[in-house]
Design a protein that fits this description.
With 292 residues, the chain is an all-alpha fold. It contains twelve helices and no strands.
Length: 292
Amino acid sequence: MSLLFAFLLILSCNCSLLLAKNHSCSHLVQELGDGQSKFVYCATTKSVPVRLCIGCAPEYRKLTSSYDALLSQENCSKIYLNSDRINVVATTQGILTNLWQKANCEDCFNGNHSDLYDVQWNILNACLSVHKDDPCISCKNDYIALNQFYLEMEKANKGHVCFDLQDSMNRTRSNWSKTLGCCHRDVKLNTFLIAVCVVVLLPIVTFYITVIVLTKRREANHGLLNEETPELDAPSTSALITAAVLSTPTENPVAVAGRTEKIAELLSGARAGSDSDLDSSEDEMIVKPKTA
């Protein structure tokens, strides 16, 4: 009986411990889920203007500590982590952690950047609230100081600035330039007129230079061919032929006809003489007897 009683006691203790561990794991998961939901609510409500890093830091620290506590329990990590392909607990935690890291939220707390920025920002806003009639003149130095502080901080962090400060600076710049209209750029009229003249006259000057160059080249080529100084207004070949024809002297038609008749008579006489010579040579050939 004593052995049976001891066995039952040990079994009950093990069951109690197992139930206690399961209860502890479920409690840790509940705390993690509560912390995640509060952080999601805070991030959503503080999205415009963005105060994710500064406004939701306590919620993020709470869910991080709850997740670390769950991981520290080996039995709980086996139950809730890597137990299926979706891995809901780890995936949800990864999404929220990635949101915090993507916003560079830790930069708000490194080097006290958030507090230093808020000091400059409050000085500018106080000036804008007082000098509503002439904010561009009265608050210009405060705006330049805030913008310079942000640029130096951005350069030191190589662009990885807390997103709360990025959003605040972007809204401040938009308000300064668009809403208040304080970013007027002074354009000098003389510079504008010079630029317009250059744009208008450049094509004309280029055209005339091209014409002069082509004319000089044509004159040089013409001089090499004719070995004389070329003239741009020299007459064309057809005009020269027409002038030569018109300048040829004309003769009297009667004289031309007489000369033609004389040439014809000479030709006919020469032909008759040649025929008579041919006949006499034939007669001589017939009269001569054959010699032995």
